[in-house]
Design brief:
By secondary structure, the chain is an alpha+beta fold. The protein has seven helices and ten strands. Strands 6-5-4-9 form a four-stranded antiparallel β-sheet. A two-stranded antiparallel sheet has the order 1-10.
Length: 215
C-alpha cells in the first residue's frame, strides 16, 4: 500500500481497515457542492437521458471529460476548484474536474469519491505531481476508477467497466497509484487551486506529496 504525507497541511484520515461508509460519498460539501442549482439541473438532465445506473455514470463521466476543458490543455482561466465553478466556467484542472464529476454522480445517488496518482511531470523522473481522478461505486462491479481529465493525443480515458481505461499508466518506481478513495479533496490540492489565480501559476506549482518508503 502506498502511504502519503502531504507536503503542506494535515493528512486527512481514512481507515482502510473499516468498510467505506457510503453516505460520506453521497454528501454535499464546500467543494463538491451537490446541492447547487446548476449541478442539480444538469444531474437531472443527464438522468433523463439515461436508461440505467450504469448508463447514467457513463453520461456523467463523458460530460465532464468532453464538455469541460482542461485548464492547461486549453490555456484557460480562471482557476476553478468548487464543482459549481467548474461547471459555470467550463474549465478546470484534473482535480477540479474530478470535483464536478463527483458532484454529478452524487446528485444522482451514485456514491463517488476522489482518487489520486503521483506522476512524473515530464517523460520520467522528477519533478512529480498529483493527478486527480474519481472512483464511482457501481452495483454490478463495486468501486471503479474513472479519469475525466480530458482526452488528447496520447491520452484516451474511457468508461469500460469492469476494465479501467485511465488517462495515465504508472511507469516507474516513484510514480504511484494511491489506493485511498477520499470523500473530500486533499488539502494540498485545494491550497494550490485557491492560492494561484492563473492556469500557468498552477502549472508552476502543481501539488505533490512525499511518499513514505514501501514496506
Amino acid at each position: 500500500m502506498a502511504l502519503l504525507r502531504p507536503r503542506r497541511g494535515r493528512r486527512p484520515h481514512l481507515n482502510l481497515s473499516q468498510p467505506l461508509t457510503m453516505q460520506r460519498f453521497l454528501a454535499a460539501s464546500p467543494y463538491i457542492d451537490v446541492d447547487h442549482p446548476e449541478i442539480q439541473k444538469l444531474a437531472r438532465r443527464l438522468a433523463g437521458e439515461s436508461d440505467s445506473a450504469l448508463d447514467l455514470a457513463r453520461r456523467c463521466f463523458e460530460f465532464v471529460r468532453d464538455e469541460i476543458r482542461h485548464s492547461n490543455d486549453y490555456k484557460l482561466n480562471p482557476v476553478t476548484c468548487k464543482a459549481s465553478d467548474v461547471l459555470r466556467h467550463k474549465t478546470g484542472y484534473c482535480y477540479a474536474k474530478s470535483h464536478l464529476l463527483a458532484a454529478l454522480l452524487r446528485a444522482n445517488g451514485l456514491p463517488a469519491g476522489l482518487c489520486y496518482q503521483r506522476l512524473s511531470i515530464g517523460d520520467s523522473g522528477a519533478p512529480y505531481c498529483l493527478h486527480g481522478l474519481n472512483a464511482v461505486y457501481l452495483p454490478e462491479f463495486g468501486w471503479y476508477r474513472i479519469d475525466a481529465r480530458g482526452n488528447k493525443p496520447g491520452v484516451d480515458a474511457r468508461f469500460t467497466p469492469p476494465q479501467e481505461a485511465l488517462a495515465f499508466a504508472i511507469r516507474e518506481a516513484d510514480e504511484r497509484d494511491l489506493p485511498e478513495i477520499w470523500a473530500e479533496p486533499l488539502p494540498v490540492v485545494v491550497e494550490v487551486l485557491e492560492h494561484y489565480a492563473t492556469y500557468d501559476a498552477v502549472l508552476a506549482h502543481l501539488p505533490d506529496i512525499d511518499l513514505l518508503p514501501r514496506k
